[in-house]
Amino acid sequence: MAEVKVIGASLSLFCTRIEWALKLKGVEYEYIEEDLKNKSHILVNSNPVHKKVPVLLHCDKPICESLLILEYIDEVWKDNPLLPQDPYQKAIARFWAKFADEKCVMGAWGACQAEGEEKEKAVESVAESFAFLEKQLEGNKYFGGEEIGFLDLVLGWIPHWLNVMEQVADMKLVDADNFPLLHEWAQRFIQLPLIKGCLPPRENLVNYFTASLTYMRSLKANNH
Ligand SMILES: N[C@@H](CCC(=O)N[C@@H](CS)C(=O)NCC(=O)O)C(=O)O
Ligand SMILES: *[C@@H]1O[C@H](CO)[C@@H](O)[C@H](O)[C@H]1NC(C)=O
């Protein structure tokens, strides 16, 4: 029995961040691919409230919600710390992580789905959120400082997933002109061998987002 297991879905940005953290810590784990269209008993029993991936199983004890899983990993395996030690800095890192998941991930996905005037507004609104993150990078190589940390892993979807969303929905959110620091950070982050070595193929993401958008739009069209 593996001590550490990750129940995940290969295209999920929330799951990839967990794998990055475990690799960074040098923790061996077993990865269990979940079929989200036909959820397994192990997922439903481990995360009865949300029934979502990722779930971390540590000696069969489940931990849910990717941000909380990252914190748990950081507390159990002390090597290569992710969160700052200082309580204030730690609270700030958690604040931005929550903000980024609520406003940037969801905002970008919302902007993808929006059309026409609505889309312009949605893009503008996500850009306001990204501007806060851009500011956090002033004078820093990574969000974690000289090394990657908690917030870098949380925002690690930007160079890969956001890039695909931008292509599929034909929109531009983060580029060298509007967010130079974020853009530079994204390039630097995605080139790290550990990060680059654990990403779903771009083509699979393109297909997935294209299909999701088509489906969402057909639902919307049928409601009118
Ligand atoms: N807030 C959650 C989000 C996880 C999430 O949205 N997971 C998606 C996959 S990307 C999922 O399991 N969806 C299945 C469903 O909603 O039925 C986290 O950070 O772990
Ligand atoms: C759903 O998953 C179960 C096992 O968890 C499997 O036996 C069954 O064939 C699957 N059904 C479909 C439609 O894929």
TrEMBL record:
This is glutathione transferase. It catalyses: RX + glutathione = an S-substituted glutathione + a halide anion + H(+). GO terms for cellular component: cytosol. Its main location: cytoplasm. It is found in: Cytoplasm, Cytosol. Residues 86-209 form the GST C-terminal domain. Belongs to the GST superfamily. Tau family. Keywords: Cytoplasm, Detoxification, Transferase. InterPro entries: Glutathione-S-Trfase_C-like, Glutathione-S-Trfase_C_sf, Glutathione_S-Trfase, Glutathione_S-Trfase_N, GST_C, GST_C_Tau, Omega/Tau-like, Thioredoxin-like_sf. GO terms for molecular function: glutathione transferase activity. It comes from Acer yangbiense. It is an enzyme of class 2 (transferase). Residues 2-81 form the GST N-terminal domain. GO terms for biological process: glutathione metabolic process; toxin catabolic process. It holds the Pfam family GST_N. The keyword Hydrolase does not apply. Its EC number is 2.5.1.18.
